[in-house]
Structures are given as C-alpha cells and as structure tokens.
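Batch manifest, entry 17 of 40.
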Amino acid sequence: MTRIARRRLLKISGTGAVAAHAGGMAAILASGRAPALAQEQTVHWLRWTDFVPASDALLKGKITQECKKATGITLKLETVNANDLQSRITSAIQSGTGADVIMGFSNWPQLYAESLADAADVAEEIGKAQGGYYEVSKQVAQVGGKWIGVPWSAGGGLIAYRKSWLEEAGASTFPGDWDSYRAVGKKLKAKGRPFGQTAGHTFGDAPGWWYCYLWSWGGKEVEADGKTVVLNSKETVESIKFAVALWKEAMDEGGLAWDDTNNNRAFLSQTISATLNGASIYIEAKRKPDTYKTEKGTPMFQDIQHAHIPKGAAGQYNNPGVFTDMLMKYSKNQKAAKDFLRWIHSKPVYDEWFTSQQGYTCGATLEWEKHKVWDADPVMKPFHDLPRVGRLVGYAGPPNRKAAEVVTKYIIVDMYAKAIQGMPAEEAAKWAHGEVAKSYAS
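Output type: structure tokens
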C-alpha cells in the first residue's frame, strides 16, 4: 500500500494476546479481579457523539466503571462530533500522540492503514467467538488479508417518513421508484412538506444518499479492476439531470448546507416529510413523546415508518454504515488497548451497549442478528438486514484507500451539488470523473 504523504493526508482528512497471562480475558472476567500487569493502565478511546444519547451515557457511566473493575484499566472515553473525527485522526498520526483506539467510519481505516497496529489476534478471536463477521465489516478492516482494525458495528440508513402525510399525498406506501418518489414529493412540497436530504460535506447522510442514488441509475466510480474510472457515463449524466429536477420539485433546497444533524431537526420540527437517516429520528421522537408531536397533537413517533431508498433502472441499494475500532500504531499502550478491546467486544459487555442502541446499528458479527432487540419494535426491524444487502463506496472496485479518498473529498456528493447549483449535467460528470481519476492514479 502506498503511504499517504503528510501534506496529502492533511488535505483529504479535513503486543501479545491477553491469554498469555492470568488465564486470558476469560479468567479476568470470571475472577472479577484485575490482572497485576494491567494495574494503573489507562486507555484513551475516541468515538463520535452517538446519535443515540443513551448509548453514550452508558459508555461514559456504567461501562467505564465496569472496565476498571473487570480489567484494571482506566478508560478515558472521549466523544466528538463525527465530522471532526478525521481531523483528529490526522492530527494524532502526524504528532504521534493521541487516543489509543479511535472509531473509524465506513472505509476510513483504509486511509490510515500504514498508521494502524496489527489487530489480527483480537479481531480473529472475537469473530470466532461470535459467528464470524459481516463481509462489509471484514472488507474495511482488512488490507491484503491483514487486520487493521476490529469491527465494531454495521448498520446503514433508511428513509424515515411521516406515514399520514404521504397518505394525504396519495401514497399508501412509500414510493418505491424514482418517478413515483418525485411525483409524491412534488405534492408534498406544494403543501410545505418537502422531502429533505443533504448535499453538503457531511460524513454519513450525504454519501449514504448520493452513492446509492448513483448506483440505482447504473453509474459507478470504477470497473471491477479497481483501476478503470468510468464515472462519466450516460447513466451518470441522466442521474444528474433527474437529480436537479427532483431537488427543485420535491426537496428542501436548504439541504445543500446540511450536516448529519440538520435533517433530524428539520424532521422533528415538521418542516420535512421524509429523509434518509439512521433510526435516530424515530428513537428521539419515541424517547420524548410529549416533546415531539404531530400537528394533530399525537406523539410523532406513532406516525414514523422506515423505507428503503427508491429503486432505479439498475436496482435498489443501500450503503452500509460500518464502524471499526482502530488501534493506533503510535500508541504506547498496545497491550492494555488490546485487553480493553477484547473486553468491550465480549458478549456480556457489548450486549449492554447493543441493547441501548435499540436497533440503530447491527453488530459487526452475525451473533447479534438473533438478539431480542429486533423483536421489540417492528418499526426498527427493517434495519436488521442492512449489513447483508448493499454496496460499499468504490463499487465496482474494492473499498480501498483510493475509494476512501474519493468519499472523503466528497467528489460524488459535489458532482450533484454543483449541478443543483447550476453546472450543466455533462460538465458536472466530467469534473467528477477527472477528480476521481486523480485519486485512482495516485
């Protein structure tokens, strides 16, 4: 793998197993005592600020306390806005100091592979104990068969929508193709209830929407060889033309400046009728039924459903949201960090966190497909299979460093944003093709 130069990295970002002593982590957990060698160790874990507040509260409270008691490790948990994570990663790598373990989203680990420690022993141990990993989790956590991270979870986005509002617009079910989606959206926007989507530089919802939209028309970045750039195609140009009309007729046009929180707020304040999102909108509305109500005064969560992004001529897709714990090579706490990762990923501990997510994300291993959380609320059930269906950025090639660079630069998102702002479709496709080619030529 080509090492990313310091200047370039800044630009695109914006040892042994625990079983070797004290009978391994199983013995630690069974005895309830911290191993002598782990005493007074501190592990710094950097994550996003979760869209499910209960999960952050759990990690910062009960889990942090349990970690000290079970392993002797003092957990320093830090959370930041997800859009700030990459700049923190870059800064840590360049300075050689920072968090020991950092959350990676999508195929970010591919960007930093040279700066990540070998995590094979931990990743393989967890995968073996929990039924193996989803393929999408393995793809982003490995380079050339080498584990560069430990898969944490895998989820994705569905469209949250107001069931009653769509019914009033003549849609008894969510529109399943782009033409009907556009037609229903046009009616809704005329009533002041547009669809809402971001076309801005934000880590999750923007790529999650526009990549899937591109694929549904038959567009793609590269061929399966992972080298031949084919973005500037008839399918891509047609998708851009339709997107411009769709945006003007059916969308909240302020979405050009939205991040991953703006659409949540817009939905909960009843200014949009549907948006691609994780389950956080529904979870928040359900958590505060007296705060978020419909125009009729009823709890809003009772009027929210989830649906897949509409299909196009080439099919219907989702972009799985994959999270990976990256063990940083510069860390001087490699042993303690691995002990921590074994513990936090173990079934009893991970179960506490997974339950708190309420179905917002799936586990990284197949073990969690049969969890009781999936039977608790039928509105959340559609998220269950997202890691099994869909494509990763970089299709039809692998989700490697080059694909990660393209998504980090928001090239696909900007292709549509430029057209929405007035650039002819053909020029937008040509511009984006050239930018993707630069990344793949490096």
